[in-house]
Amino acid sequence: MSDGSHSFLILPGLGNSGPDHWQSVWEAELPRARRIDLGLWDRPVGEAWVERAAAAIEDNPGAVLIGHSLGAVLVTLVAAARPDLDIGGALLVAPADVESSARTPDFLRAFAPIPDQPLPFPAVVVASRNDPYMNFARARDLAGAWGADLVDAGPAGHINVASGYGPWPEGRRLLGRLTPRRVPVLAEQQASRRV
User: Fold this and answer.
1) If DSSP codes are grouped into helix, strand and coil, which group holds residue 54?
2) What pTM was estimated for this model as a whole?
3) CA dist., res. 86 & res. 58, Å (int)
4) In this predicted structure, what is the pLDDT of residue 101?
5) Using 50, 70 and 90 to split pLDDT, how confident is the model at 105?
6) Which SUPFAM superfamilies does this entry report, sorted A to Z (predicted)?
7) Is residue 3 assigned to a domain?
8) Edge-to-edge, what's the strand order for the sheet holding 149-152?
9) Which of 94, 176, 109 is nearest to 139 (CA)?
């Protein structure tokens, strides 16, 4: 089990998150945050990504996972494959529909099916009304199946740099929902800046 302190593991989607993406900004700002190097960013292999993510979680028990797009789906795949892992919570932003989106490349279908059982940790799903990679109704249904809180982001595209999301302070506030029994995320950040 976790020792009560928390760390953050960042799981980007296809192509990794560039330097201006909110995941990269958070990685630089949050103490004890690190990106999982999933490898093969432009042509990911589902099984390899699940194994690498599980290994990183084993090394960081109790971590809060921060997944975007394919990285959000990966969190659910890891939870289904490895229910023994100690995961403190998950922020799942703009999950990509690897099953039914017309925009899904064939090689990403290896990440299907998306698990539809409850997650054994607290989770928040942030979904957009006009995400080209996931229909809002489908995101709502998945959040319900996962037992996750759903945040309707409105017409926010894919909640990435192309949609106008850089540091994304609202997302940081949502992340705070997942760490209520630990040091609040924003207070911890401010303390680290004073040092």
Assistant:
1) helix
2) 0.89
3) 7
4) 62
5) confident
6) alpha/beta-Hydrolases (SSF53474)
7) no
8) 33-35, 8-11, 63-68, 87-93, 123-127, 149-152
9) 94
Distance of CA 52 to the CA centre of its chain: 15
Q: What is the mean pLDDT of residues 12-30?
A: 96
Q: Please report whether residue 2 resides in a domain.
A: no
Name the residue range of residue 143's domain. Answer: 8-194
Residue 30 falls inside a structural domain = yes
> CA 113, CA 91: separation in Å to the nearest integer?
20
Q: How confident is the model at residue 177 (pLDDT cuts 50, 70, 90)?
A: confident
Structure tokens given for 63: 């971590």
Q: What is the mean pLDDT of residues 139-145?
A: 98
The answer to whether position 98 is within a domain reads yes
CATH code, domain with 16: 3.40.50.1820
In terms of Cβ atoms closer than 10 Å to its own Cβ (0-12, 13-18, 19+), residue 37 is exposed
User: Is the bond preceding residue 113 a cis peptide, omega within 30 degrees?
Assistant: yes
Kindly state the tokens that stand for 49.
Answer: 């990504």
**Domain tally, the chain:** 1
